[in-house]
Amino acid sequence: MHIPDGGEPKSRRGRGVTMQDVGRMAGVSQVTVSRALSDPAKVSPDTLRRITQAIEATGFVPNALAGALASRRSGLVTALVPSITNIIYASMVQAFGLRMRDAGYQILLSETGLTLEAEEETLARHLSRRPDAVLLTGIHHTARTRRMLLASGIPVVEVWDFTETPIDACVGFDHAATGRAVGDLAADLGHVQAATVCAGDERAKRRMAGFATQFTRRGGQAVLELGYDDQASLAGGRAALARLLDEMGFDRGLVFCSSDILAHGVLIEAQARGLRVPQDIAVVGFGDQEFSDATNPPISTVHVDREAFGRAAAEALLSGIEGRRDGPAAIDLGFRILRRGSA
Amino acid sequence: MHIPDGGEPKSRRGRGVTMQDVGRMAGVSQVTVSRALSDPAKVSPDTLRRITQAIEATGFVPNALAGALASRRSGLVTALVPSITNIIYASMVQAFGLRMRDAGYQILLSETGLTLEAEEETLARHLSRRPDAVLLTGIHHTARTRRMLLASGIPVVEVWDFTETPIDACVGFDHAATGRAVGDLAADLGHVQAATVCAGDERAKRRMAGFATQFTRRGGQAVLELGYDDQASLAGGRAALARLLDEMGFDRGLVFCSSDILAHGVLIEAQARGLRVPQDIAVVGFGDQEFSDATNPPISTVHVDREAFGRAAAEALLSGIEGRRDGPAAIDLGFRILRRGSA
DNA sequence: CTGTTAGCGCTTTCAT
DNA sequence: ATGAAAGCGCTAACAG
């Protein structure tokens, strides 16, 4: 089967330098080159030197595809988020990627958009690359997504939402609870009227619902609810307050927004109309974005430590990969209400 | 998560179902399964049906690692950007990824941070996965980066900056020219004093320098220049204007910022001090971010079509991969000055 | 339309 | 400390 190289190398179509080539130049076999790279201590100093020189001379770059196929470890980790242009997810993935990179893994990142079906299809493509672990956003997935994940047998972490019964591991927080906490704040501050402005996914809606429930339970009037399908934006926040004021009979009170950018828009629109914040209109955002404490007045918001989510998710996967984790893990990292000038 | 061995007939250590397995179940050889997947038209309808059933029954997921090794095409495309939490790069990569995904490629994305050495190291790791093409941010790279790229023989596109002599292809714009154009605007508006606030990379500095050169050439006073090492932020913009006003003798005039977020900070600080914008302080940003036309007043800025960069970069690589491109390509996508209320 | 044969460039295992 | 042999799971010729 294996025809020995009869002296002269056959004309190599592919242009890549192989370990074979490096070994030939260094006067050792291909395996020794492999060893020199994966565990230098296992080859003699002299051999190592010659191999290093040969690598330098040839510009050899190991083929990780072949390595992964042979070792059954790809060194790849899948990360699936709704959108990378959303700072919430971007900063989480950034922290996740840093930790995984330190552990020797590379991130295969994809956007899944809004539907679970898109997530399922993207996941299938990713699994064909045989990742060593998977990060998913959210706790709701299609049946086939779950099945594929289970069948793959690799560690999985679901982030940015919380459940006691994750596929494998979960790192998140209780979205409805954040809304209820803001509802309490609104009631504590003595507001009678309140409104919500939502331009996010299902999780954002749950936050808004938690707010409405708690605010009315605490004696507030029925909450005016405004929802948008497009991405959160300053313009959207301005338009929302305008609509609340001009068309929906909102007079004065607290506005809870699904993101700080919407809250900032509400703030700007209020000021453009000569309304005082927080006296006439109070506003609370979500996410504690970088700009939120530098506006005038600074924006009250719900803080969640996005980087911590990314790091914790990485740890959960690493412990799974290395078999240090016995069973499922569900970690609630919680949140903090940041009361600032806007409410 | 530990999935018990499903008790397969043959003691397969590896838990993946292979084409071999699928073929056996469908009563055909492994190659036929491969064909059914890559080119269904080459297989008889009846065979195809049986194969499809077998795939369904086994939950077979093709191993792209093996496929890539055998075919010498990984279906992977490398994208290297300074930071994914910077909306500038995130939106560019998003558009790039969409186009490449449509063409059947998956993106291997990494952050390179600020140094060319980090870029080099990251690139080396990426090349070991044998990507079919590479996207790089900027036109400055280490010698070894260039050497590795040239040796790999795959299409390369450098984005977000412009040169007539790219490694392979280039899609960008002239940063200094944007600064000069804003310098002209400042002069046209009759400003005598001007300042720059920069919190970005080398390209941002080139924009600021272009502004200063042109503004003084047009008769303006020497430009006050403020530079920060940290990321651009609202707070940074506010602090910058405060410093300009309180410590550097800036009185009234135009402030050109390296990003819209800084410009927004300047705007807020000016208003907090009771200064009129644009009468007392005029401000121009860069990037035309989503919020920039919804502030009060809206921010004048330099618009660059980030999505267009991403798409054009994708096209450049695709034409290279498919051999449709003969030689290097250098595309200057230009920019537009958007004059709004802030200047 | 389908099968056979020969690798892709590595890691693993077992000798030496 | 080093090497030979045997795959990893797939694609690419080439037959038939």
UniProtKB/TrEMBL annotation, chains A, B:
It comes from Salipiger marinus. The keyword Transcription applies. Keywords: DNA-binding, Transcription, Transcription regulation. PANTHER family: LACI-RELATED TRANSCRIPTIONAL REPRESSOR, TRANSCRIPTIONAL REGULATOR. GO terms for molecular function: DNA-binding transcription factor activity; transcription cis-regulatory region binding. InterPro entries: Cro/C1-type_HTH, HTH_LacI, LacI/GalR-like_sensor, Lambda_DNA-bd_dom_sf, Peripla_BP_I. Coiled coil: none annotated. Residues 12-61 form the HTH cro/C1-type domain. The keyword Metal-binding does not apply. Residues 17-71 form the HTH lacI-type domain. This is Transcriptional regulator, LacI family.
